[in-house]
Specification:
Blueprint (H helix, E strand, L loop, with lengths): L3 H13 L17 H13 L7 H8 L4 E7 L2 E9 L14 E7 L2 E5 L1 H5 L2
Antiparallel strand pairs: 1-2, 2-3, 3-4
């Protein structure tokens, strides 16, 4: 009976060797794997069509990395930026690593750098 605690302590690593404890430092919802995130964004963007609604696209793609809103005489423009490529290994997402989606009055009118610069 005296040896029972010692026996349990020595055998614990054998019984617990299959246990894995997962700790998630990213409470903001972003995936740890930036390559998966970029791939998924590119995949969604490849299936976009002009005229799609803002809510439908955000429902599929999730929260954008950056967002801009601009009021012009012909309507309200919203630009969402989704990360699609990596420029530097600094761990920070910048607009040059994103693809812009351009909406006019809540409908998609284009995406990519050309659509953004034509505003």
């Amino acid at each position: 009976m005296k040896f029972m605690p010692l026996l349990l302590a020595l055998s614990a690593p054998v019984f617990l060797s299959g246990c894995i404890i997962s700790v998630d430092d990213h409470k903001d919802g972003y995936s740890n794997d930036w390559q998966d995130r970029e791939y998924n964004n590119r995949k969604h963007i490849a299936n976009l069509q002009e005229g799609m609604g803002f809510e439908k696209i955000v429902g599929r793609m999730g929260v954008a990395d950056f967002s801009e809103l601009e009021q012009k005489s012909d309507g309200v423009y919203r630009i969402l930026y989704y990360r699609t490529q990596r420029s530097t290994e600094d761990g920070i997402t910048t607009k040059d690593e994103c693809t812009p989606l351009v909406f006019k009055n809540g409908e998609l009118i284009g995406w990519g750098e050309r659509a953004y610069t034509s505003l």
